[in-house]
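name: query_chain
kind: protein
chains: 1
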Amino acid sequence: MRKYVIMGVQGSGKGTQSAMLAGDLDLVHISVGDIFRWHVKNHTKLGAQVRRLVAAGELVGDDLVEDVVKDRLDLHDWNYGFIIDGFPRNRRQAEFFLESYDIDGVIHLDLPDEEVRRRVLARRLCSRCGMDYNLIAHRPEEEGRCDVCGGELVTRPDDTPDALARRLADYHDKTGPVLELFRRKEYVLTIDARADKLEVQRTIRARFNLPPYRGDG
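structure:
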């Protein structure tokens, strides 16, 4: 069983790298952001709460994030392991996580703030099916329309310069203590996330002695 935490600011490629790892290693990819987006899309009570926070330009509280992660991991559907992104977000959550779960390592995707802004502000989301696009790396065939369902592509409500600046400040404030704790207790692999996604994936697998990526070549 393999269990990993992947950390990185928005736009660093956590979702992409997690999917590549999970796809052929039979890991369950647990994305806190995806869980919240599912609740928003399906109009649950939690989704309404998240929608109000986003509309006000506020961050989802740490207690709420912790509860969502605990409920997800309690499903125990990760027979071969998991890779989790979007958690832990602060030192207290990291301590809770290390007390509750043995992990094999932490993948830290490092990306300069100016590149974060370039990537995040180019993101688009299909208003109908939720498919993700990026106008830099993954453009739709028809401008402004989803390749899958033809829905209109929109900017995420929280992908604005002001909201991004708040998220970056919050991330840097909280990530340092979390990485410090992980470095004392676990193996932390820091990778330059500006590299090509296949290069990043090869580095992760080489450093953790994992099988080569099946989609590579």
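note: The chain is about 45% helix and 15% strand.
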